[in-house]
Design a protein that fits this description.
Layout lengths: L4 H19 L8 H11 L6 H12 L4 H22 L9 E2 L2 E2 L1 H4 L2 H20 L9 H16 L4 H10 L7 H25 L6 H28 L2 H4 L5 H4 L5 H24 L8 H12 L3
Antiparallel strand pairs: 1-2
Length: about 300
């Protein structure tokens, strides 16, 4: 690949931003306030890690960009909906997200609730549309993609992880318990992004699918461990969200369980395991390997 990773990343981020702007309802359409809030929450911020993972996985299966747009935007809509709800007073009660006021602060709590609901619905609307230039068995693939994203989003995935998180405040968790919580809360959607991207291209042999799934699970856990590290080492200005909030809320984290150095060592182990999982793919997995390194060493 001749294109440098930062250039590729910026290109995918810009492509995803443009696709999201097309998929989202226009701001002036009724109900205008809700649609404006949806666009406020979704556009103009974020690392777009999940869309990047979808595009990177799509390179392994030869997926076309037009199909990957749908997968990337669907998973990002679910992610943004989770952030909007997570920031509400009944959850984490935060006022800052992606460097600006959270949705319920900028608008109001009922609007924020409806923004999350609407983005969740939009994600599945996007996946149910005809896949442009997708594989020959696109309808069957789309049903599988809907299933993957639905399972990753619900009580057996992200929502279930959030429920465990809320129930665990002030309680000590063992490392297996903490890993289960984050495999659901954070890892499930990251795993879904990888699998959705791969599903946009050619069918994979079972051994390759299993290797990609191992990578996705390790990368998802790695993302959360690094998040925990950054929460206690980076500033609010750098993160674009309130730093130190997990410790202040007495939430179990990898830093509280393992210590800062222990959490950093664990992140290194997860990065190595994620990289090792990509061995069967050779050069096709270059972007996934670069993303694993980006996730492991990011500063925000």
């Amino acid at each position: 690949m001749s294109q440098a990773f930062p250039e590729w990343m910026a290109e995918v981020q810009a492509r995803t931003e443009a696709a999201l702007a097309r998929y989202l309802p226009v701001a002036e359409s009724i109900p205008a306030r809700l649609h404006q809030a949806m666009r406020y929450s979704t556009l103009g911020g974020g690392k777009r890690v999940r869309p990047l993972l979808a595009f990177a996985a799509g390179e392994i299966t030869g997926a076309l960009p037009e199909a990957l747009d749908a997968a990337a935007c669907a998973v990002e809509c679910i992610h943004v909906y989770s952030l909007v709800h997570d920031d509400m007073p009944c959850m984490d009660d935060d006022v800052l997200r992606r460097g600006r006021a959270t949705c319920h602060v900028e608008y109001d709590e009922p609007t924020a609730l409806l923004v999350g609901d609407s983005l969740q619905s939009l994600a599945f609307d996007i996946l149910s549309r005809p896949l442009r230039c997708g594989p020959a068995d696109a309808p069957t693939r789309q049903i599988e993609m809907v299933r993957v994203l639905a399972r990753a989003s619900g009580s057996c995935g992200m929502a279930g992880g959030q429920a465990i998180d809320l129930a665990s405040v002030g309680k000590p968790l063992s490392q297996p318990e903490l890993e289960l919580m984050h495999a659901l809360k954070t890892g499930a959607l990251i795993r879904a992004a990888v699998l959705l991207g791969a599903l946009c291209g050619k069918a994979m042999p079972e051994a390759e699918h299993d290797a990609l799934d191992r990578f996705a699970k390790r990368a998802g856990l790695l993302f959360q461990v690094v998040d925990d590290i950054l929460d206690c080492t980076a500033s609010t200005a750098t993160l674009g969200k309130t730093a130190g909030k997990d410790a202040a809320a007495d939430k179990p984290t990898y830093v509280s369980l393992l210590g800062l150095e222990g959490a950093q060592r664990f992140a290194g182990e997860l990065e190595s395991e994620a990289m090792a999982s990509l061995a069967p793919f050779g050069a096709r997995s270059q972007r996934l390997a670069e993303l694993a390194a980006f996730i492991a060493h990011r500063k925000f």
